[in-house]
Amino acid sequence: MVALAALALLTAASLYLGSRPVAPATVSRILFDAATSAGSGQGPQQRAEALSITTQDYSAVIALRLPRTVIALAAGAALGLAGALMQVLTRNPLAEPGLLGVNAGAAFAVVLAIVLLGASSPAVFVAACLVGAFLATGAVFLIGTLGAGVITPERLTLAGVALGAVLAGITSALRLSNPREYSILLIWESGDLSQRGWETALPALPVAAVGVVLALALAGPMNALTLGEDMAAALGAHVQRTRFALVLAITLLAGSATALAGPIVFLGLMAPHVARWIVGPDQTRLLPLAALLSAVIMVAADVLARLVMWPGEVPVGIISALLGAPVLIILVRRRRASGI
Residue 216 domain-assigned? Predict the structure, then answer.
C-alpha cells in the first residue's frame, strides 16, 4: 500500500512538473479534457482553443509529460520483472536483465539501422531495439544449448556475457568511427526520456504487456525451480520448459524496456532485492512487488531528472545509477536479501 501510494504521488508529480511552467489547475483541465474528448479527431490547437489555453501548454502535457510518464511506468515495471526472472533463471542474486545480451543486441541493432537505413526516427529505433533484443537472446540461447541439448544457467550466463561483450565492442568501434553520425545513439544510451513521445511508447507497450502477463504466469513454476532441478521435477514442474519460458519473458520485458527508455542500469538488479527483503522469496508475492517498486524508482528518477538542473534536465539513466548504487550496496550486505 505504501508503494502504491508513492507511485500515485510520483505519477502526479511527473504529470504536473516539467521544464515549462504550467499551472496545476491548467494541467488538471487538460488531462480531464483529454480523457473525455478522446476520439474527437480534433488536434492540439483546436483543443487548446476550446480550453482557452495556449497550444504550447496543451502539447507540453499531452505530447510530452503524459507519454513520458507512461514510458517511465512501463519501462520500470518491465525492468523489475526482468531482473527478478533473470535472478531465478541464473540462480544468481546479482544477475540483471542485460546478462543475456539484450542491451548490447539492442544497441547494435540501432547502429545497424543508422548505417544501413539512415534511420533517425524514434519509431525505427524502437523496432530495431526489439529486433536486436530478440536476435541477441536467440543467439545466446543457441550458443548456450549447442551440443548439450538442455538449458543450463551457467551456459546461458557465459554465452550472454560473451556475446554481449562482442556486440558492445563492435558498437563502440562503429560509434567512434563517426561520432557525429552516432550522436543520437549517445542520447538513447543515456536514458534521456525527454526525447521520447507516443511514437516511442506505442510500438513497445504491447510487447511489454505480453512479457508482464507471461512473467506473472510463471510465478508458480519459478518457486519450484528455486528449490533445485531435482526437487522441481519431483514437484511436477517442467524444468526445461520453464527455463525456455523465462528466457522468452526476459527478452520481451528487457527488450521493450530498452526500446522505451534505453539501457537503464541497476534498476532490474535493485528492485527484486528490495522486494525479496520485504516479502521473502515467494515469487507470487515478489514479482508484483518488484514490478511496482521498480516503477516507483523509475518515475522518481525521472522527476528528479527534471528538477536537479531545472530548467535543464539530466538523463534518467544517470539518476537511476546514482540512486541504485548506494541502495544496492546496503541491500546486498543484508543476510536476508542476499539469496534467492
Answer: yes
